[in-house]
Amino acid sequence: MNDVAPTAVDLETHRAALTGHCYRMLGSVADADDAVQETYIRALRGLSGFEGRASAKTWLHRIATRVCLDALNQRSRRVLPIDEGAAGTVQDPLTTRPRTHWLEPVPDAAVLPREAEPSEVTSLRQSVRLAFVAALQRLPPRQRAVLLLKDVLGFSAAEIAETLELTVAAVNSALQRARATMQPPAPSAPEPDESGHRLTRAQEQLLDRYVDAFHAYDVERLVTLLKEDVTMSMPPYALWLRGREDIAAWLLGPGIGCRGSRLIPTQASGAPAFAQYRADPAGGFHPWSLVVLELSDDAVASMTYFLDVETLFPRFGFALDDLPPAGGEQRRS
Q1: Residue 192, exposed/middle/buried by CB under 10 A (0-12, 13-18, 19+)?
Q2: What is the CATH number that goes with domain 78-129+186-333?
Q3: Within 10 Å of residue 256's Cβ, how many Cβ atoms?
Q4: Residue 326 pLDDT more than 70?
Q5: Burial of 283 by CB count in 10 Å (0-12 exposed, 13-18 middle, 19+ buried)?
Q6: pTM, full prediction
Q7: Longest Cα separation, the chain
Q8: pLDDT, tens digit, for every residue of 108-138?
Q9: pLDDT at position 325, please?
Q10: Taking the mean position of all CA atoms in its chain, how far away is CA 38?
Q11: Per-domain residue ranges for the chain?
Q12: Are 199 and 272 in contact (CB under 8 A)?
């Protein structure tokens, strides 16, 4: 039992874990930030009543879960373009949906606690992968909460029941239904080495070749790095494409304006990612997209270009004016 109430400083040490939990629940980095702030507001108001029947971590996650459920009462689920219908073609018209319709990526640095062990980091990265979080959004909010509290955070059925004001039997039933809906599980990532490094040497070389080909805008060389059934999407556009041929046609057709772009590496939603700055005909560069790649073996399996740079770039530490100076690039890890 912990009968000492945590201080405001103690609460802050849990920010990364809480951000990850709220992101999985809500599918949005912006909404997760708001939910964490509301969690701290409620926690600070309730510090005097902290009874120590659970750890500060458990207590905060209970509050955060309730905050997220309150938010989800007023919002529809977020999705990726590939969740909304069949693949399109280069000739299809471009239609958009509001920013709040789409799943967003999250910076790895915002959801991975600095003190976490490599094995825990691997598990946490998997739990914020775009495909996994998109699948979570298909669950009813309470089932989503039950699954995350049990399978990601390790809560007992009794703790979940207290958090959600359910019976233990109702928790176990919801968990069973949620797990059935989530099958098959998310694909496993490579085991990290002692430093937590998660990419194989072959994958690092693949990413280097990808950047070189994109900077040269050598589409013929670029598509050789892609899987045959690779997908590409560009939220807020609803259109998505499948296959090397259609993607090559897009890059050499409607997407030709990306020629001359520069890619700055980062990490997003447990995957390699890049801030893309597009060349401006008037000179310089302007922010264009946050590109998240999913790798399968030694090829690129999907490319998601998130075009809402106003929301995403500041959270990833990227400028909204011109290309950052050399040396400002973030390391892949």
Answers
A1: middle
A2: 3.10.450.50
A3: 11
A4: no
A5: exposed
A6: 0.89
A7: 64
A8: 999 988 777 777 888 888 999 999 999 999 9
A9: 67
A10: 21
A11: 78-129+186-333
A12: yes
